[in-house]
Amino acid sequence: GAGCSQGKMAAGTAAEAQARFGHSVKGLLTEKVTSCGTDVIALTKQVLKGSRSAELLGQAARNMVMQEDAILHSEDSLRKMAIITTHLQYQ
What we know:
mainly alpha, 2 domains, rod-shaped, single chain, 1 helix
């Protein structure tokens, strides 16, 4: 009878150990999932920030092109005014 009860205790201990192991695995898995979720959120924020930066750079480039056009137009106008001034001086 003594051998039989020891076998039951060993089986009980093994079942407890298995339950504890399962519990710790679940805990680790939950931690990993949470950590992974946090990483995904951080990555998403970074990507959005990057796309916003690209958008701002594009806007800055368009503004520069517009400024360049305005400068070229002004330069052209100044050249024409210089020609008119020269003509007026001859008269």
